[in-house]
Write a structure and sequence with these properties.
single chain; alpha/beta; Rossmann fold; 2 domains; seven-stranded parallel sheet; three-stranded antiparallel sheet; 19 helices; 10 strands; 51% helix; elongated
Length: 439
């Protein structure tokens, strides 16, 4: 252990006494037990001494009536109590370190890790639905506030590595699942990098990510896509859970505003013009049971951000999922997109996004969350070349329809107009219903 590690170990002792760790009560019981044992030991010794105990009591009695006792006994007792408490806490910490040394690589960090896990375990129960980059960014922000986090992921993509694996194995799309698993990995730097590694050579593996291949492998081993994801959720140390909306392969069928019908997610943006209606084929695809259960127990449900027709809507088009969303008592928040997307939401304002959401889901969200930070000219110019434009957060019609609207500075940095994961997570956690213990 390096000097810095020793300092971190000593500094971590404070965590053992913080609320929720379940250590203070054990320290108290240890102290009470030691005192009872000491009293019992003294009684036993006095009994064994018989009449000779008077010889032992005489010098003690002289001390108790002396001036030194009167002047210093209180301070001495306090110091002894503090030293005893310190030794007890240190002993319990070392005991935990010793017990956990065979399971953890850095046992002197156990207090800090356990403290963080307990804090996150008391966080709000949040379910996030969607796919693509938007959902994985959202999860990276929310994982800092709660471990009661479930991602219900779209599995309708049919392009790239995902499309090849779908065609080869007849399985649902694994790509967005891989991104979400990486986002919720406890050691994202290592595991996330591994899951998202893309093979750059080899005729069969070229272009595939390791995470996609891993999911395909487990699908073959388990013989069922749902069981493959159950295995992954058990094997990976996730700060939450990741489930497909359905364990069956599904295809998107989008009807454009001019009544052109487009089949397949990858073809939606290729055909120009705004989209109007989405269908999921087959229409009776069963929902992943764990996803339905998570929605039933959620306190906050988040829709978006992400491509409206190819990320946000597809998970809720699964009949079991949509029914759960319509009947849930949880607060549903729609995160408004920052920009339109060519081939999907050309010319859409905020209200048009909400109308499409309502038409497909059968209910309005309870809250609409939007960005109040302006997008710089450089990014606007770059998006203009793709046929995309800002979606102003004009909530007039939404509020007239009875929806609650709230705005926050959510714009992230970089060359893309994306939400800042940390800012978005803070805004969403603030919208979670307060539990009685927090009021």
């Amino acid at each position: 252990m390096t000097p810095n590690d020793r300092w971190l170990y000593v500094a971590s002792w404070r965590h053992w006494l913080t609320p929720g760790m379940g250590v203070k009560r054990h320290v108290a019981w240890a102290v009470v037990g030691a005192l009872v044992a000491a009293v019992g030991f003294v009684v036993a010794v006095l009994w064994m001494l018989g009449e000779g105990r008077r010889e032992l009591a005489a010098p003690i009695e002289r001390v108790l009536v002396g001036d030194v006792w009167a002047r210093h006994a209180g301070w001495a007792g306090g110091v002894v109590a503090l030293v005893g408490t310190f030794v007890t806490v240190m002993a319990l910490g070392r005991l935990n370190r010793s017990l956990l040394s065979n399971w953890v690589q850095r046992p002197y960090e156990v207090a800090e890790v356990l403290h963080r896990r307990l804090i996150l375990a008391r966080g709000p129960r949040i379910v996030a639905l969607g796919g693509g980059t938007g959902l994985s960014l959202l999860l990276r922000g929310l994982r800092e506030h709660t471990s009661n986090l479930t991602a219900v992921v779209a599995v309708s993509d049919d392009g790239g590595s995902t499309g090849r694996l779908r065609a080869a194995y007849g399985m649902p799309a694994p790509g967005d699942l891989t991104d979400c698993l990486a986002a919720l990995a406890t050691d994202e730097a290592a595991l996330g990098r591994l899951l998202q590694y893309r093979f750059r050579r080899g005729d069969d593996l070229l272009g595939h990510t390791f995470g996609n291949v891993l999911i395909a492998t487990l699908n073959e081993v388990e013989g069922d896509f749902g069981d493959a994801l159950r295995s992954l959720n058990r094997l990976l140390e996730l700060q939450g859970a990741v489930w497909p909306a359905t364990p069956r392969p599904v295809t998107l069928r989008v009807t454009k505003a001019d009544d052109t019908v487009v089949a397949g997610e990858s073809a939606v943006r290729v055909v120009p013009g705004a989209s109007a209606r989405l269908e999921l084929l087959p229409g009776d695809a069963e929902a992943m049971p764990e996803a339905v259960a998570a929605i039933a127990h959620a306190e906050l449900i988040v829709l978006g951000p992400g491509s409206l027709f190819t990320s946000t809507l597809p998970p809720m088009m699964v009949p079991g999922v949509s029914e759960s969303l319509r009947t849930t008592s949880a607060r549903i928040v729609y995160v408004a997109n920052l920009m339109t997307e060519a081939g999907e939401t050309d010319g859409f304002d905020l209200w048009r996004h909400l109308e499409v959401l309502h038409a497909h889901l059968g209910r309005w969200p309870d809250v609409v969350l939007g960005n109040q930070t302006g997008i710089d000219r450089e990014r606007l110019a770059a998006y203009a070349t793709e046929g995309a434009e800002p979606v102003p957060f004009d909530t007039t019609r939404a509020e007239a329809a009875g929806l609650t609207a709230t705005a926050a500075p959510l714009l992230g940095h970089g060359r893309h107009a994306q939400h800042d994961p940390a800012a978005l997570a803070r805004a969403l956690v603030a919208l979670a219903p307060k539990r009685r213990s927090e009021r």
